[in-house]
Amino acid sequence: MTDVQAIVLALLQGVSELFPISSLGHTILLPAILHWNNINRADPTFLAFIVVLHLGTALALIVFYYRQWVRIVRAMVASLIRGKLSNDRDERVGWLLVVGTIPVGILGVVFQDPVRALFSSPGPVALFLAANGLVMFAGEALRRRQLASPQRADRPIEDLSFVQSVWVGIAQSLALLPGISRSGASMVAGLLCDLDHEDAAHYSFLLATPVILAASLLEIPKLAAPGAHVVLAQALAGGVVAAIAAYASVAFLTRYFKSNDLRPFGWYCLLAGIACFILTRMGVLT
Amino acid sequence: MKPIALLLAVLFFIAGLLYGLGTINFFTKSGTEHAHHVSHLVICWVLSLLCLVWYRFQGSPSR
Predict the structure, then answer these.
(1) Of A50, A108, A165, A113, which Cα lies nearest the Cα of B43?
(2) ipTM of predicted complex
(3) The pTM is what?
(4) Do A221 and B61 count as a contact with CB atoms less than 8 A apart?
(5) pLDDT tens track for A157-171
């Protein structure tokens, strides 16, 4: 992997992890489009590189929401000591995040490897990317239908039920399929649980943080793989680039979703997915 | 529900231990890969810890 490839992949990872466009899908499709045949996704050195990019992304999310995480952890510890849930907003959000993380933790450990072994070639990834676009359109359409109902009103994150948080977590698990976006799926689920776009994005980013962090921490032994030290400098530079890109992305998206919806990302995923699938069928992407 | 929470905590802890020792291989990729067993061990112990949290929230009276 050249330095330019490393920086491009880091930038792509940092941005696409938080934009609802599937980071995994893009890191499979872009090297295929650019014919970067020197990149072997199964190579231990490449896996070590990816681990550092994920760490960078997770750290960016933690830094962005640092104050809220401190409040959440404090409130959760207090509730544990007390042995009773209270009406504290941060405590409630903290336990909702814990409950919402359980499905992706279990499903990720059990299904990640077989799913990725089956669907990590450009053809299926392109189809899943298009499906990701359709999921966002469907989510927006269902939300508009909900808004038309007179009984319905937006609710804050802390008013989610634990069952709803589990559903959002299950939706997030769809991102095990390369091409389906973690943030897109969890945002759509959040919208269907009566969160507005801003809160759905906020909850999606909070929910993604422990998952990305835990996944990268579990993979840290890969940094000790034979030959991994060769890409250490590239990995560190890539980690910094991914962190900066992720921070800028979350800052942009939190503003964007104050007054916008998922449809532009839906169009992008649908068109990019269809285009990549056609290129795959033509033999251009391999 | 308290006994169920405690029972599940113990079961998940033992399952994690067995994954760590390589005694059980359910839902693992190859059944032999070390890193994969570690992830199963970790998820089992996290679930065990969460069961203890569940137990705790059913335990004490409020302030």
Answers:
(1) A108
(2) 0.76
(3) 0.89
(4) no
(5) 999 999 999 999 999
